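Notes taken during the Thursday session

The instructor put the following on the board and asked us to keep it in front of us for the whole hour. The protein is Wall-associated receptor kinase. We were told not to look anything up and to reason only from what is written here. First, the residues (360 in total):
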Amino acid sequence: MRFPFITVSVFSWLSLTITALSLSKPGCPEKCGNVIIPYPFGVGSNCSAKCVDDTLNCEKSQKEYPYAIICQNSSTPFLSIIKMEVVKISLYGTLIVKLPVSPMNCSDMQTTVPVPISLRGSPFTIPAHYNSFVVLGCENSVWLRSDTMQTVGGCTAICDANSTDTSCSGVNCCQTTMPERPQEFQYTYRSIEASNKSRYCGYAFPADKKWIQSAYTLHSGLNQDPLNPYDAGFRFAQLVIDWEHVGFEDFHDNTICKVLPQGRTDQYIDDYYTPRYDATGNNYVSSTRYCSCRDGFEGNPYLGREEGCIDVNECSNSTLNICGGNFQQEEGEEHNIVEVDESDEFSFTSESRGGDTLTQ
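Then, after some discussion, the predicted structure tokens were revealed:
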């Protein structure tokens, strides 16, 4: 029996099977050490994108090339505008950096300390999606402050010297929800009971929620005195940052951009504070806006119409399990596509795309 054609639409000049695509600007390094550097990021200003959002006043703030990476010793990437080591950059609109942390000095007076990162004048924000403000130890009360000194959160942990819990759920460690997308903030702390053993009274810092528990494993000194943890080797915490290439619109129809709604409903708040990951669970998805290639295309949409999303023969990849029967690739054809509602909380646009034909 011969079944009717099932047509998946893709518009392309060429249909190719891609085994390895470069995500960096042509002629530029693809990696720094083991970290992939996808455009708009790049090693140096010549390989990274220029700020194109007039509202950021990038030139006046001397952040004209906010995506520039410094590849220190040809092995360690640093985001130039904040001088912090980069752990990972995702095309889903996020990156992970190493935020410097230091212990709090014991004090029975309220002490206000700025978090050592400022993203003002840049296309970067700190998402509450993936980060929380953490207080290690139980000898301090901590108030999280906005840049206007308004209290927006805070916590105090319960002391239990016999506890082995490292979930940071309120015993010897607590965490509080952060504002939605700050670019800088500060915190105020006061010691409840100063330690007789040390001049330090624990730590307070924003960090990736998934990373927090690993801190106890990576730095054993934090477990020796859970009431007042200290480890001389504990100097960095992983922080997730959202990024946008705002103002860049040189996309082809094979690109789709996803934007979180701007409404202030309860559903919006629930959606905002719910972490999102890609299909593999390994990449954080931006809480604001990011662009990606449509199904049937691969690559980096931020490289523009020519080098961006490339048409691929996804049916030739048996691991995708999206095609059956005998696959026929038709080059250069344009077909109409039936729009599928896949929007959930994001907004999508549907364009014609095409070129793949499946027969059975």
